[in-house]
Amino acid sequence: MLKTMLIPAVALCAMAVPAQADELRDAITDDMPQLMDLYRDLHAHPELSFAEVKTAAKLAKRMRDLGFDVTEGVGKTGIVAVMRNGAGPTVLVRTDMDGLPVVEQTGLAFASKEIAVPESGVQTGVMHACGHDTHMTAWIATAQQLAERKSEWSGTLVMIGQPAEEAGGGARAMLADGLFTRFPKPEVTLAFHDAAQFPAGMIGYSPGYALANVDSVDISVKGIGGHGAYPHTTKDPIVLASAIVMKLQTLVSRESSPLDPAVVTVGSFLAGAKHNIISDEAKLQLTVRSYSDASRKLLLDGIKRIARGEAIAAGMPDDKMPTVLVRDDFTPSTFNDADLTERLVAGFRTRFGEDRVMQVPSVMGGEDFSEYRRADPDNIKSLIFWVGGVPAEDFARAEAGEISLPSLHSPFWAPDAEKVIATAAEAMTDATLRLMAPAGGN
């Protein structure tokens, strides 16, 4: 997932505002030593998407020890832990589990030294460069608190460890494997993500669209190759592909509403192998970002139209038209239901203080947590929120222009894990208790 924006310096005051003191916070504080042991273990031993075998086993054991009914191997390596506690709503709390093919450079004493071979076939280091280790640890911390507080809630709690968020297919795989048919179907789904753009311990939220539709598009531009000294005997695919690249920008600047954000980025342009040879093919790789289904359709249809139109303008014959492939690893936009968001954020403000909870802009990053709500949007509501991870000293230095902060997916990303875990566990436990309060309760 991508970062949003650097929060203004006034956010630093959040760290100075005393949060509401209570027994829940004290209980989480008491658990932090063993939680940090778990965090360091998870951080040191990350696994790639759909390979989270040891990670899932560690989480499954802990959930069984807490009294959950646990099923492993859902969606290949996912886990589902269910705790039934009388009549009431069904709430799903999700964590993601996978690491990234990144060689860690944080310098942490427990830095990952894991090596693996991803789908690319290139051996690489593996790192929790997106903070999923903090997510899993906070998820366990939340489970511990809820298991100990069964007198404070009623209903069915479904806690899932999802594989392959980074690959964009983990949620889809769990749903295809019967997540909502083999197990209780939720009315509400909850998740959080650590954030690399504001101080550790802050909470950020975005009502409505929070993250974007993410499409990957491959365009193969055909040509007629030949000698670079005799271009008139060829149909140059590089010139044609260049025209396509430039025209694609008008999809955002002239066809999309300026009030409806959209991104069309050409991330790769490959063609040719020698100075004096005009190749017979150029290949483009695009990332396409949007929020609404209508905006997504406009962009994808426009890409196909422009590719064909530019080829016609270049005089390409019908059998040399470009091919446009919209890859099937699409991640739909993530939507936070406004009423649910307002209700739970009100609780966050009460618990943590006004200055520690901030509405933040939506981002064009993607998150397949969106799949759960999308499976039944009329009956499932959803909220994903951010928890700041930047150490306070680093944030202050970045605000002063002394350093640049590493983003998520950076080999240097090392959040203040203790604050992320403690804040997220407290927020997630509070949210779940509010949603599942017995009749007449909160």
Automatic annotation (TrEMBL):
UniProt keywords, alphabetically: Hydrolase, Manganese, Metal-binding, Signal
* Signal sequence segment: 1-21
> What residue intervals traverse the membrane?
none
Which residue range or ranges hold the Peptidase M20 dimerisation domain? 211-310
Gene3D superfamilies (alphabetical): 3.30.70.360, Zn peptidases
Cofactor: how and how many bound: The Mn(2+) ion enhances activity.
Key word Signal present:
yes
- Carries keyword Aminoacyl-tRNA synthetase? no
Q: Which GO terms describe its molecular function?
A: metal ion binding; N-acetyldiaminopimelate deacetylase activity
The cross-references to Pfam families, in alphabetical order and at most eight, read:
M20_dimer (PF07687), Peptidase_M20 (PF01546)
Looking up SUPFAM superfamilies in the UniProt record yields: Bacterial exopeptidase dimerisation domain, Zn-dependent exopeptidases
Cofactor requirements of the protein? Mn(2+)
One of the protein's GO biological processes: diaminopimelate biosynthetic process
Amino acids binding Mn(2+): 130, 132, 166, 193, 409
From which domain of life does this come? Bacteria
Q: Under what name is this protein listed?
A: Amidohydrolase
